Amino acid sequence: xxxxxxxxxxxxxxxxxxxxxxxxxxxxxxxxxxxxxxxxxxxxxxxxxxxxxxxxxxxxxxxxxxxxxxxxxxxxxxxxxxxxxxxxxxxxxxxxxxxxxxxxxxxxxxxxxxxxxxxxxxxxxxxxxxxxxxxxxxxxxxxxxxxxxxx
Length: 151
Hints:
Strand content: under 5%
Structural class: mainly alpha
Helix content: over 70%
Order of helices and strands: HHHH
Radius of gyration: 25 Å
């Protein structure tokens, strides 16, 4: 049984490596995007929750792989006796972590794109209302306009 435990722990280590790679590669970029979109404080909080959920989804994907044999939940002995089957389960566990991570990224990307579009539209409508109010008034001097940030 120690071999079985070794393969399982190696698969969990692989799952953690997948989560770390996604955390540092995609999570950092998403954090910068969130900070630019929502400001420093709210963007940082949103980026942390995004990265945390990314890691959790990878770990859940890795832990959702079933390691028992064909005869049910108590059939670990069939897997423990076959090194090739244990290697297959290890690979399935790491692949499942990648799959869950990608599914989370696709879902979060879709929600983020929708949120960005709604905020941009709201910002454009507010800018159009402000410019029409300003053009209807008679101003003698115009102050330089500061670039707006989506809030």
